[in-house]
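Annex B. Sample input.
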Amino acid sequence: MASDRTDTPRDLAGLQDIAVRIGQIYGDNFDVTRDGSFYLGKMMEELGEVSSAYLKLSGRSRGSDCDPDVLRRDLEDEMADLFGFVLLFADWQGVDLAHVFARKWGKYLKDPE
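Annex B, continued. Sample output.
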């Protein structure tokens, strides 16, 4: 199993770049057409996996009797997968997520930074 990488960028643009590179590898390895159906389908699949992992972690699903650290890691991994596909979909649509997130959510802050 690979170790956690501490040199991974933490800014959204850097993470999106990683997602795009991994998405290219994924597409090439599995010979998939990366279109709207693919991206939306993968996001829905990953959201289902996030939901399942959360329900297990919170004791409301089969498999909740596993090691809590393992269940927590599963939730984190599924959230990373969902986030990755959101980043890929945004890139495919030419959306600057940092900008639109700040525009949409930032408007509710009284003192934007």
